[in-house]
Design brief:
alpha/beta; 42% helix; globular
């Protein structure tokens, strides 16, 4: 297996895919921390709690928690709803990249794969990647869902991940599967993107992960 040196920032949700992706990149030599995008105050902090448990299982040290509920609500209200997933993921990439550049991460890591729907089509992923200026690694890109579920069971994340996911709470019933960059840039012109990103980063917190059977002094600190 090819070894990769450096630090990667994993975009960690409470689902099956991203913990498996983070684990695979750790196996290949990357030092991995995570960033979780919480839909608070649109939802509660249940997804954050799931992510902290998943981070513990796969052996991460810390998780940045970014509350994006208000920012994503503005995307849903001010932009064509069918582009919501692409627009929100582009914002997540921008926030994650800002943290990565600030704190010395060379890569972003996601659990996206082409077996999924909505934003996870090849064309949409290309548009999402346009928002990034550092490499985005997708180790699960060619996996199907059964392969990911099997890996999650082997890794020990399946039981935590199988609960309900609420990341689609603001999403459309029929998302665009073939967004063009020009369409997405036009929709982004309806937002003050830099202000939203600055607000999200300003409200971010950094949480230390408690290792199995252990404790961490000062579990939570401001970013």
């Amino acid at each position: 297996m090819t070894r990769i040196s450096g630090k990667g920032l994993l975009l960690l949700s409470g689902g099956f895919d991203s913990p498996v992706a983070g684990h695979l990149m750790k196996q290949q030599g990357l030092e991995i921390d995570a960033i979780h995008f919480s839909l608070e105050p649109v939802t509660d902090d249940a997804a954050e709690k799931k992510c902290m448990e998943l981070a513990r299982i796969i052996g991460l040290r810390k998780v940045y928690v970014a509350k994006v509920g208000d920012a994503f609500t503005k995307i849903a209200a001010n932009c064509s709803h069918r582009f919501y997933f692409v627009l929100s993921k582009r914002m997540m990439v921008r926030v994650a990249e800002a943290v990565a550049r600030r704190d010395g991460y060379s890569f972003l890591v996601t659990g996206e794969n082409l077996g999924q729907v909505s934003s996870q089509t090849l064309q949409n992923l290309t548009v999402i990647d346009n928002a990034a200026r550092i490499p985005v690694l997708r180790p699960l890109l060619g996996f199907d869902k059964e392969e990911i579920i099997s890996a999650a069971k082997e890794l020990g994340t399946y039981e935590t991940s199988k609960g309900p996911e609420i990341c689609d709470a603001l999403g459309p019933d029929r998302p665009s599967t073939a967004a063009t960059l020009s369409e997405v840039l036009q929709e982004e012109s309806n937002l003050d993107g830099e202000k939203l990103i600055t607000e999200v980063i300003g409200g971010m917190k950094t949480r230390a992960v408690v290792p199995p059977g252990g404790t961490v002094g000062g579990k939570e600190a401001g970013a």
